[in-house]
Amino acid sequence: MTTIQARVNTRLLSKASRLFTGTLAGRIIEILQNARRAGAKHVEIANRDGTVAVRDDGQGIEDFEKLLDLGGSGWEEKLEESEDPAGVGLFCLAPRELTIRSNNKKLTIAADGWTGAPVEILDDAEGLPASGSNIAAGVGTELVFKDEPWNSAAVKSVAVFTGMDLTVDDEPCPKERFIHGRSSLHQELGCQIKVVARTELTAWHQSAPQHREYGHNVLVNFHGQVVSFSHRPVSEHDLCFLVDMTHQPTGIRLMLPARTCLVENEAFNQVKAALELEAFRYLQQQGRHRLPYKEYLRARELGIELSEAEPTYRVGLLYTDMVPEPVEMTMPKGHPLARCYRLAESEDGDDTDEANVHLLAALGRFDQPFVPVEIRREYEGYSWAKLPTVGRVELSAGKTLQESWVCGGKLICVESILVTVHCSDGQVFRSRVPMAVKPWSGKEDRWLRDCELYVTPEVRQQLSDEQIWFHLGGFSEDGDTYDTQLYNFSQELEEFWLRLTGPDESLRRRLVDCLSDLKDWRSATILPDGRVQLQLSDGSQKTLIPSQPRAREEVRP
Question: Residue 410 has what DSSP assignment?
Fold first, then answer.
């Protein structure tokens, strides 16, 4: 039997400079992580002439041979269980020349040292001098290498949650707790979790390098290195989750080599389950929520009793996030939701009922208010969503006075419009209205049928052109600008009203408009030869005679 086994080819060393954290933020994070794992409480960073020096007060390096052992971390077992160090952190500085001093030893790794060339470990008789006011002589580790500046701006956002005191060129860096106040401990995952509203995130949370992905709402502080992902276990609430590792054994792992996201393993699934639980607990503490009924039941399955969701509804049945807008429907002050009505689903799928119920409520007159509301189906199950419904909708139109096409829709002017709705609680609401949508006859494909709108002459005084336009198709993104389309519609609508007044009204209106600029005239006569005779208010007469290029004027007493 032939067998094979995994091994690491030495050629991997030649690619070290491209494999491990090639970004400045990545290098800073890796070096700070190494210092923290070594027990450092203080780290000092100094920039001088293109050289960066990093000094910490950790326990120092016991085994220098481990420094270039790719994959061999050398950390104690407890730390291995809680952090899973990969043993590649120092390689983030490849192929830079690096000098390391610690525990009276020193070495310099040249470019070829990263790819397998021998590196000599020397005695450091002088030892490390005291540094600043916090690090005593001979304590900790110092790294010196060439790099772009590790200035305060680059270091602050990646160091703020490490728990260490840092200075950059003698300037202290901010130090913050990742979670403030109460949180829930999940010992089996080695973390604590807190749910917050997005507005509660600090500037430091939002500036973490790995939190810049749009839509990410879960921040995991992996001992100073913050990674993020998107997970929304509940809807209707813009919640964020802070997950802080606690140095306890955990199965939560960072993806190698970049360590900028979590491994999607079983522990990751357990984290998401814990986030769902904490989200429901958070809403329970808030005492109010807007969860769909299905999620309300899910919380109960997890042993969390929530109050019913806040009544979530929209007054009226017509709305759009674009202009033009429909006729506004408002709820009278003090009118309870329990006395409102929902529209029952139409068996024939005719959506004209929705429009006519809305218009009846908005434009009709009743002895008691008729208020239809829209409640999304996901809220069905809550007691407040169990409202009486509007069932049969009837429309009766009077004698047709005129009909014609206006901007792609048919406008039908009738003497009167009566809309009647029958409700499940026995109530009948009936009123005359100035506008309604012609119901679908059922003979044509409802998706292909043209817009047909009933109006009465009174609608001209009661509603705006835009409110009428809404039901005849409204604004088209494929056409001209909104203002241009509205102008064209208004012009066609005006012609419609003029034709309704009489066949010659449009001509009369244009003639009057042409004479509107003339002053002091009593009458005008247009002769077949093109002359126009004006009788002026002072008794004189003015005649306009057609000629080219200018009209000749003749005035007689």
Answer: E
With beta carbons less than 8 A apart as the criterion, state whether 397 and 416 touch.
Answer: yes
**Residues sharing a CB contact under 8 Å with residue 520, sequence separation 6 or more, in sequence order:** 536, 537, 538
Token pair belonging to 469: 């336009």
Note the CATH architecture for domain 11-172. Answer: 2-Layer Sandwich (3.30)
pTM of this structure = 0.78
Note the pLDDT tens digit of each residue in 51-110: 999 999 999 998 888 787 765 555 566 666 666 665 466 888 888 999 999 999 999 999
Residue ranges covered by each domain of the chain = 11-172, 184-301, 315-482, 518-556
CA distances from 241 to 208, 238, 290, 553 (A): 14, 10, 19, 85
Of 67, 416, 69, 82, the residue nearest 249 (C-alpha): 82
For residue 459, count CB atoms less than 10 angstroms from its CB and return exposed for 0-12, middle for 13-18, buried for 19 or more: buried
- 479 burial class (0-12, 13-18, 19+ CB within 10 angstroms)? exposed
Q: What is the pLDDT of residues 445-470, one digit of tens each?
A: 554 467 899 999 999 999 999 999 99
* H-state helical runs in 476-556: 482-501, 505-515
